[in-house]
Design goal:
The protein is mainly beta and 279 residues long. It has two domains: 69 residues, SH3 type barrels; 185 residues, Porin, CATH 2.40.160.20. It contains two helices and 15 strands. The strands form two sheets. Strands 6-7-8-9-10-11-12-15 form an eight-stranded antiparallel β-barrel. A five-stranded antiparallel beta sheet has the order 4-3-2-1-5.
């Protein structure tokens, strides 16, 4: 009797090893091997022509699912990939591009002054982001954002002017992302709140002085990362920065400006994203 039970167990085990599962996706039946299932996705392995692929699909697209439905495996003689292509929890982003200051110029300026201010709107932007995602959708991290704009020229009523303006943002980030079906690409939305520093090394004629200010800034990022390999992505990002100040240090003395200096800016950047540590 024991021998019969052992033989039946071996036959059943052999059947389970060879059996494959059924997925019905939008009316189409798929012979596959379900390897993992969570609240959002069904992970499975299937054969496409002579290649065995690992992939996943959103659960709401699955009409029916039954394990062990097919008695015979469809992977005979074909190497099965060991893991699914999953997204990494770490995101380290290096970005460079341009920023455009959108703050309106003060009223009462003549054309030469407005033209000079407009020359300070466009500048270089460089940034570093490090984020860690606790789940597929939510994470936290930090951001450093650098902007540099400069202009020089003659302004009626003021003479020869020169400004070299640098702004630096440093702060923590609340990160969200939405993965594509293949999990190779991701749409990201990040919100950061932190320190915003302002430095203007300026000159009026032969008189040179530096104005500095410290304030609170807010940055909202909208990005899309395109997977190039298992650990590298190409990223495009639109960022909105808001912040301003009315008190500053000019030439070593504290001053109060007649109006608020608005530092609001739109940035467009592109860069490389690294994703070390597979989840």
């Amino acid at each position: 009797m024991k021998k019969i039970l052992l033989l039946m167990g071996l036959l059943l085990a052999g059947h389970c090893m060879n059996a494959q599962d059924l997925l019905v996706i939008e009316g189409d039946s798929l012979n596959c091997k379900i390897t993992k299932e969570d609240r959002t996705y069904v992970y499975f392995t299937f054969r496409h022509k002579s290649e065995v692929r690992n992939t996943l699909i959103e659960k709401y697209k699955v009409t029916a699912m039954q394990r062990g439905f097919y008695a015979q495996a469809d992977f005979e003689g074909v190497a099965i990939p060991s893991t699914h292509s999953t997204y990494h929890p770490w995101r380290m982003a290096l970005s460079v591009g341009g920023g455009y200051r959108i703050a309106a110029a003060a009223g009462g300026m003549d054309n030469s002054a407005k033209s000079y201010i407009d020359g300070l709107r466009l500048g270089l932007v460089a940034g570093v982001d490090v984020d860690y995602y606790f789940t597929d959708y939510l994470g936290a991290g930090g951001k450093i954002l650098y902007n540099r704009a400069s202009n020089s020229g003659y302004v009626v009523g003021s003479g020869d002017l020169e400004d070299n303006i640098t702004t630096i943002f440093i702060g923590p980030v609340f990160a969200t992302r939405f993965l594509s079906a293949s999990r190779k690409n991701a749409f990201t939305i990040n919100l950061a709140l932190g320190y915003l520093g302002y430095i203007d090394k300026g000159r009026v004629g032969s008189f040179a002085a530096t104005m500095t200010a410290n304030t609170v800034g807010i940055v909202m990022d909208y990005g899309y990362d395109i997977g190039l390999s298992k650990s590298v992505s190409l990223g495009f990002q639109l960022s909105l920065l808001a912040g301003g100040f009315s008190k500053a240090n000019f030439g070593g003395q504290s001053i109060t400006l007649p109006g608020r200096e608005n530092l609001s800016r739109i940035d467009l950047t592109v860069g490389i994203r690294f994703h070390p540590g597979k989840k």
